[in-house]
Amino acid sequence: MTQQRIRASRALPASLLAIALWLAPHAAQACSVCTGGQNDALRRTYLLGGLSMSALPLLAVTGLIWWLRRRARALASPSFAPARVAGAAPITARAI
Fold first, then answer.
1. Dihedral over Cα of 47, 52, 57, 63: its sign
2. What's the pTM value of the predicted model, to 2 decimals?
3. Dihedral angle sign, alpha carbons of residues 33, 34, 36, 41
4. What is the per-residue DSSP string for 53-88?
5. How distant, in Å, are the alpha carbons of 4, 8, 54, 62, 90 from that of 11?
6. Is 46:40 a contact under the CB 8 Å cutoff?
7. pLDDT higher than threshold 70 for residue 92
8. Torsion angle, alpha carbons of 75, 77, 78, 80, to 10
9. How many CB atoms lie within 10 A of CB 42?
10. Could you report how far apart the first and last alpha carbons of the chain are, in Å?
11. What are the C-alpha distances in Å from 28 to residues 35, 42, 69, 72?
């Protein structure tokens, strides 16, 4: 009698898993996005949307790096050096 209970207790999770795997494709088709890929225009729209969302952060980081590099070059250029006032002592680093 206990052998039959052990077999039944092992068979129940296996059968539930089998039923869940059998029903999984049907549940996936309930999603509007999963069935929406059947239309070529909609599939292309999803592809372009995904590509644009992937490219946007790359463009933002590239633009930030370009701006920082341009700003650093502008600060390092001799034309950006502060003008000296006539009669003023040059600025030097000294301990206070």
1. positive
2. 0.43
3. positive
4. HHHHHHHHHHHHHHHHHHHHHHHHSGGGSPPPPTTP
5. 10, 5, 46, 57, 90
6. no
7. no
8. -40
9. 13
10. 94
11. 9, 18, 48, 53
* Spatial CA neighbour of 90 closest among 28, 23, 81: 81
Of the candidates 61, 31, 58, 59, the one whose C-alpha atom is nearest the C-alpha of residue 46 is 31
Answer yes or no: are the C-beta atoms of 37 and 43 closer than 8 Å: yes
Buried b (16+ CB within 10 A) or exposed e, 2-39: eeeeeeeeeeeeeeeeeeeeeeeeeeeeeeeeeeeeee
Evaluate whether 28 touches 34 at the Cβ level (below 8 Å): yes
Place of tokens 């644009």: 52
pLDDT in tens, 44-78: 888 898 899 999 999 999 999 999 999 998 888 87
Give the type of residue at 25: P
